[in-house]
Write a structure and sequence with these properties.
about 675 residues, alpha/beta, Rossmann fold, Immunoglobulin-like, eight-stranded mixed beta sheet, five-stranded parallel beta sheet, about 20% helix, about 35% strand
Length: about 675
């Protein structure tokens, strides 16, 4: 394609040339007014001379037309996999490419946007696909989708180009789909509190009807609740222990709905402890007490209350009362009224000194039975007449003293149970370098499990469950020696951290655990038990079909399995008395909220760009395309417009005078001669 332009390059400056032209025009005008003889020839001569001075030049441009870009975006999100939408999308994209393939003025680009993110984000793909195209190089965008797009810009200018955006819709108007929508479910909650969330059952064809919803709560317990279709219903979920708590809700499918995938939802709440409130009750000062205080106070999430007796009440002090800066310790509030506010009570080398009355110790025993936690660090006094075993705590302590204190070096070692128990498993790395302890109390186990042995094979670490609570007892006050610099250390901090977390009922430290994690369509299973090995588990698919999955041995006390899920939705895993859930595929709640084909999310934006919305079912395929110019309508009832910008690049340039100056000079001389001849007559 070539283009021509006319330019002038006068021999005189433009100002002087303009003055000359004006003067010439004035003289010729005066002659014309007086009807002078030969004025016509004089005018021709003047025009020829002025053109010769102006030097008109014709510039010829050799141009190459630039193609405008048409972007075709195929929506391959999960909602587009329903029914024949995927096939319709593929056919529509191919038809558009075939129609525009022979148009040399267009460059067709096609991109496919799959799911996997939070919602369907087509416009992010649009911006990326035309990032290398200038704003005036886009002819239009065609979205082949079901209309469920979640990143629609608020303003058309946000796209960065001025071209129509068209939506070609798959599916059909009036589709029916029943779905559960969760609103306000928090990701985190505080242990001991309840989180609230709202669930709405949506079904436009059954608004107001009552429908039962099945609820699966932690532990595999199933309940049922009736929901009114279209009315939000509030639920409360108590968080009893730290870790991820999952609740599944499911409503029965109906025969004519699009998909049952969004008939179920799973709410995951990560329960965390706001503050770990610990009461440390210590006896005689020791190095172990100092290390306990340092360990607990180093954690900003721990609120520590330290109850210690520096002087028994029977000891007299001559200091005047008005000079004392001490205040009475609120023992009654701590051991009676506010005991349940603590998550953990620690006794460190404590023995009977006539300070805590038996009622307070009885309160602690009842506190543990109700679900509290107790850690006892036993010192030499545990073997004597002032032992805690001679108090109401006897009923919950996992050992009874044998009346002997062993005072000689020994190296702690894991028992057979301790090698499999999550509290101590893995601590054996570097066990050959563990240093010795030098004292322990000989105790006979009466409850729970012995995870570590001390001197002569006597229990060193004993864990026990009492009622709803837990008790741990370390029958030595020598763990602090592992913190001394130099050889002979040991994993004291990790050991005590695990013991405390087990007392706090952390799920990952449970002796019996069934856990499932999901990666794409693969479900990985971890089973742990210290005493009940399993060879297989049962996997129940969302449809109710059961599959037996064999387990393979892994680390001590654990077994693993992995399998591909052939259904999307909530899977239930069962092994022995344990159960776990796994949500496969349909984890994108934003995508599942609405899966019906609907022009609503795109309609306003498409209209603002000058584009149109079309149903494939109404036209039997995508409507034909028409070229349109800027300012023209870009969509009709049965056609789509693509804006042509007429862009080009100049590949060559040639200049030539419009009229050669000798010709103009000859014309001027001839005209003057004819004017003279006319006057002579």
């Amino acid at each position: 394609m070539d283009g021509y332009t006319l330019t002038f390059a006068p021999l005189l400056p433009w100002g002087l040339f303009a003055a000359m032209t004006a003067a010439t025009a004035a003289v010729l005008g005066l002659g014309l007014r007086k009807r002078s003889s030969g004025i016509g020839f004089r005018t021709l001569a003047a025009a020829a001379l002025l053109l010769a001075i102006a030097r008109p030049t014709v510039t010829a441009e050799q141009r190459t037309e630039l193609a405008d870009v048409v972007l075709v975006v195929a929506d391959a999100s999960p909602s587009q996999q329903l029914g024949d939408r995927a096939a319709a999308t593929s056919s529509a994209v191919q038809a558009i490419q075939d129609e525009l393939a022979d148009d040399g003025g267009l460059e067709v680009r096609a991109v496919t946007v799959a799911g996997g993110g939070p919602g369907t984000n087509l416009f992010a793909a649009v911006r990326s696909a035309v990032a290398d195209v200038p704003p005036d190089g886009v002819a239009g965008v065609v979205l082949v989708t079901d209309g469920q797009v979640h990143d629609v810009p608020e303003d058309a200018s946000a796209l960065g180009f001025d071209a129509p955006v068209h939506a070609v819709l798959t599916g059909a108007p009036g589709e029916r789909d029943r779905r559960l929508v969760v609103d306000g479910a928090p990701r985190y909650g505080i242990v001991g509190e309840a989180v609230k969330f709202r669930v709405t059952l949506l079904d436009e064809a059954a608004v107001g009807q009552a429908e039962p919803v099945r609820i699966t709560v932690p532990g595999g317990h199933v309940a049922e609740r009736v929901l009114q279709v279209g009315t939000p219903t509030e639920f409360e979920l108590p968080l009893e222990r730290a870790g991820v708590v999952a609740v599944a809700l499911e409503v029965a499918a109906i025969p004519d709905e699009l998909t049952p995938d969004n008939n179920r939802v799973v709410i995951h709440v990560n329960a965390v402890r706001d503050r770990l409130r610990v009461m440390l009750v210590s006896g005689e000062p020791s190095m172990g007490l100092r290390h306990w205080r340092n360990l607990l106070q180093a954690d900003p999430a721990v609120d520590l209350v330290h109850f210690t007796i520096l002087r028994p009440p029977t000891k007299q002090d001559a200091t005047p009362v008005q000079e004392l800066s001490l205040i009475p310790f609120p023992a009654r509030e701590l051991f009676d009224a506010n005991l349940d506010d603590f998550h953990l009570v620690i006794f460190d080398r404590y023995h009977l000194r006539g300070i805590l009355p038996p009622q307070y110790l009885s309160n602690i025993a009842e506190y543990v039975v109700r679900g509290g936690a107790l850690l006892d660090i036993a010192g030499p006094s545990y073997a004597g007449r002032f032992s805690l075993v001679n108090t109401p705590l006897r009923e919950i302590l996992p050992t009874l003293p044998a009346g002997e204190v062993i005072e000689r070096p020994f190296v702690p070692e894991l028992s057979e149970a301790g090698q499999n128990h999550p509290v101590t498993a893995g601590l054996t790395a570097g066990a050959a370098d563990w240093g010795p302890w030098y004292r322990m109390v000989r105790g006979m186990p009466v409850k729970g499990e012995s995870l570590m042995w001390g001197a002569d094979g006597w229990p060193l670490l004993q864990l026990s469950r009492v009622g709803e609570g837990r008790v741990a007892q370390l029958l030595s006050d020598q763990s602090w020696v592992w913190t001394r610099p130099g050889p002979g250390g040991g994993p004291r901090a990790e050991l005590l951290r695990r013991v405390v977390h087990w007392l706090m009922k952390e799920p990952d430290l449970e002796e019996h655990l069934l856990k499932a994690t999901v990666s794409d369509r693969r479900i990985d299973v971890l089973y742990r038990s210290v005493d009940t090995p399993l060879r297989e588990i049962t996997a129940v698919a969302p449809s109710g079909a059961s599959t037996t999955v064999p387990l393979g041995p892994a680390a001590a006390g654990t077994a693993i399995a992995s399998f591909e899920a052939n259904e999307a939705g909530l899977w239930t895993l069962q092994g022995g008395n344990l159960s776990a859930t796994a949500l496969v595929g349909a984890a994108d709640a934003l995508e599942l909220t609405e899966m019906r084909a609907d022009p609503g999310p795109l309609e306003a934006f498409v209209g603002a760009t000058g584009g149109g919305v079309f149903w494939l079912v109404d036209h039997g395929g995508p409507p034909p395309f028409r070229p349109v110019m800027a300012g023209q309508t870009a969509a009709g009832d049965n056609w789509l417009g693509l804006r042509r910008h007429g862009r080009h690049t100049v590949t060559g340039l040639a200049q030539s005078p419009l009229l050669p100056w000798p010709l103009l000079l000859a014309l001027a001389v001839g005209a003057l001669f004819l004017a003279w001849h006319r006057e002579a007559q």
